[in-house]
């Protein structure tokens, strides 16, 4: 199972992403914790270390996810 870590820049962007994922029948989990959990720390470390596939637009994302 692939995971996508998204940090919305605004409330409007957050609402848009939730709606978009819901319309695509993609299960999403909103994590709001005062302390970062292990999975989030690992995802952030992977991004910093360059161990992830970065995309610059939705077409690249869909290609990566094979949707």
Q: In what range is the share of β-strand residues?
A: under 5%
- Kindly state the mean pLDDT as a whole number? 78
One letter per element, helices H and strands E, the order comes to HHH
The strand count comes to: 0
Largest sheet: none
Q: What is the assembly state of the chains in this entry?
A: single chain
Q: Name the shape in a single word.
A: globular
Radius of gyration: 13 Å
Low-pLDDT stretches:
none
Total DSSP helices: 3
Which structural category do the helix and sheet elements fall into? mainly alpha
First and last CA, distance = 13 Å
What percent of residues adopt helix (DSSP H or I)? 40-55%
Report on this model:
With 67 residues, the protein is mainly α. It is 48% helix and 0% strand. The protein is built from 3 helices and no strands. It has helices at residues 11-23, 38-48, 58-65. The chain is globular, with a radius of gyration of 13 Å. The two termini are 13 Å apart. The mean pLDDT is 78.
Provide tags for this entry.
67 residues; mainly alpha
Topology at a glance:
Elements lengths: L10 H13 L14 H11 L9 H8 L2
Quick gist of this model?
By secondary structure, the protein is mostly helical. The protein has three helices and no strands.
């Amino acid at each position: 199972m692939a995971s996508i870590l998204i940090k919305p820049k605004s409330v409007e962007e957050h609402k848009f992403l939730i709606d978009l994922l819901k319309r695509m029948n993609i299960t999403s989990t909103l994590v709001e914790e005062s302390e970062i959990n292990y999975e989030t720390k690992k995802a952030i470390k992977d991004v910093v270390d360059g161990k992830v596939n970065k995309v610059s637009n939705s077409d690249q994302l869909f290609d990566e996810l094979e949707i």
